[in-house]
């Protein structure tokens, strides 16, 4: 699953992480440190962690960890958990740190943004981190998008993954289903159908294009006796709408007039769709 990194550098988004020569670097016992409690990353790449540990064993920790004084005991790691874990593997007793002040919301922001910058999170981890950050910091999608250096449509699309059934979310989390598969499944208006289609995709190792064909052109899988004839031009318009808006769209024809039905899942999803339409009209 390919993810885009942030457009800005980590220090540009969070200036408090920029370590300069003027900063006082302290060495603290490794047992005094605890990981960021808001760390969204569930799994660490063990191979890369071992490579970092080998580097630390040879050269030491060049970049100090950023920490804050913990409300519980010792220090909370704000940035540098991979270095902390690698230092544990090597058996270091003390590590260099720079102590800064961070609020709970800032601590969560750093955890999310740092991992996004390094592309270490899977799609579900990103979606959950966005949702938690919006709730804790009382942010709108637009505010969150600016804070993490991403587009609003990106944020909206990631959050929509949380509307999928848990079984489908697990597929996406493991990388078994791609973001393309997930977007196609979101256009299905029934959770049971979403799960069934997801299982079918995994069983048949189905491509995104094939899944889109099943979702956007279900008539192809209906027998000739039960198939309802539809103007091919109208069908083409429906397909284009669905692909662009990422949701179920139906064009209903009457004798003299018709109507377009666009499905949305929440207020934010409605705003996402309106934003896409407004962008297209510009």
UniProtKB/TrEMBL annotation:
Cross-referenced InterPro entries: Chromosome_partition/occlusion, Cro/C1-type_HTH, HTH_ParB/Spo0J, ParB/RepB/Spo0J, ParB/Sulfiredoxin_sf, ParB_dimer_C, ParB_N
Q: What is one Gene Ontology biological process annotated in the Swiss-Prot or TrEMBL record?
A: chromosome segregation
User: Cellular location of this protein?
Assistant: Cytoplasm, Nucleoid
Keyword annotations from UniProtKB, A to Z: Chromosome partition, DNA-binding
What is one GO cellular-component annotation here?
Answer: chromosome
Question: Does this UniProt record's set of keywords contain Nuclease?
Answer: no
The UniProt record lists the keyword DNA-binding: yes
Matching entries from Pfam families are given as: HTH_ParB, ParB_C, ParB_N
Ranges for domain ParB-like N-terminal come to 26-116
Q: What is its main location?
A: cytoplasm
Molecular function terms in GO for this entry? DNA binding
Task: Report the sequence similarity comment from the record.
Answer: Belongs to the ParB family.
Protein name (record): ParB-like N-terminal domain-containing protein
Q: What species does this protein belong to? A: Alicyclobacillus ferrooxydans
């Amino acid at each position: 699953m390919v993810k885009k990194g942030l457009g800005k550098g980590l220090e540009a988004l969070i200036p408090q992480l920029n370590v300069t020569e003027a900063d006082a670097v302290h060495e603290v016992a490794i047992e005094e440190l605890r990981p960021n409690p808001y760390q969204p990353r569930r799994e660490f790449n063990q191979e890369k962690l071992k490579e970092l540990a080998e580097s630390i064993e040879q050269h030491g920790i060049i970049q100090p960890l950023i920490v804050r004084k913990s409300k519980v005991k010792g220090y909370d790691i704000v940035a540098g958990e991979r270095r902390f874990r690698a230092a544990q593997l090597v058996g270091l007793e003390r590590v260099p740190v720079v102590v800064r002040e961070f609020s709970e919301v800032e601590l969560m922001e750093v955890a999310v943004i740092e991992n996004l910058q390094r592309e270490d999170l899977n799609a579900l981890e990103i979606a959950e981190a966005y949702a938690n950050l919006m709730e804790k910091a009382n942010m709108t999608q637009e505010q969150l998008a600016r804070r993490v250096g991403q587009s609003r449509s990106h944020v909206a699309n990631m959050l929509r993954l949380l509307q999928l059934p848990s079984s489908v979310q697990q597929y996406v989390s493991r990388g078994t289903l791609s973001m393309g598969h997930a977007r196609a499944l979101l256009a299905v208006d029934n959770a049971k159908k979403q799960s069934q289609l997801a299982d079918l995709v995994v069983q048949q190792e189905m491509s995104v294009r094939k899944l889109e064909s099943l979702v956007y052109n279900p008539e192809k899988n209906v027998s000739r006796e039960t198939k309802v004839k539809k103007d091919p031009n109208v069908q083409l318009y429906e397909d284009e709408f669905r692909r662009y808006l990422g949701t179920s769209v139906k064009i209903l024809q009457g004798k003299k007039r018709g109507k377009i039905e666009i499905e949305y899942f929440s207020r934010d999803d409605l705003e996402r769709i309106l934003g896409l339409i407004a962008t297209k009209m510009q």
